[in-house]
Amino acid sequence: MSQLLYRFHGIVVKGFGRGSKQLGIPTANLPESVVDQLPEGFPTGIYHGWANVGGGDVHKMVMSVGWNPFYNNTKKSMEVHIIHKFDEDFYGQDIRAVVLEYIRAERGFNSVDELITAIQSDISMATERLDQEQLAIYKHDPFLKQTTTNSYRGSNFPPES
Ligand code: ADP
Ligand code: RBF
Ligand code: MG
To answer: Which of the ends of the chain has fewer CB neighbours closer than 10 A, N or C?
Structure first.
């Protein structure tokens, strides 16, 4: 598995409402603007890395980028499942992520159960690999703790005269 490094952040939006949450795998969907910013040639598929929400704790995550062949989507999506149990939803909050490895391509399945089994196996893979030191260090990537509020630090602004 080859390592990559892609950082992004964005506001969590409503997804397709397929009830992934009911299946035990909620996915925080990213807005179109963030999907459009993916580098040209960024392969669709399943990835893992680190993520946090609203400046909070950093957790392991799995991410799906693409067309969700199982559902015959016509719109490219980007959704992140954070491997952590949250007490509340976080729509409207800023999610920040560091993407580190490509796990596999997206594929179709014969049933929802098979899709879930595949995602569970992605989660196991992520859980294991992100503990390796060369990936674990990114849990502390400063990017994850930046805030989206603009800040300015200057010594002579506005100019005195
Ligand atoms: P939608 O179709 O709107 O994306 P989902 O069923 O995929 O609905 O649920 C996603 C929402 O669940 C997220 O936007 C977030 O607010 C919430 N959520 C709770 N726990 C998690 C988690 N561990 N990972 C991702 N989203 C979570
Ligand atoms: N959708 C697919 O159609 N094929 C896949 O192989 C696939 N793999 C996924 C792997 C992970 C780790 C996650 C979080 C999602 C994946 N999805 C896949 C997307 C899934 O269909 C989507 O989360 C639900 O449809 C809710 O939008
Ligand atoms: Mg979702």
So the answer is: C
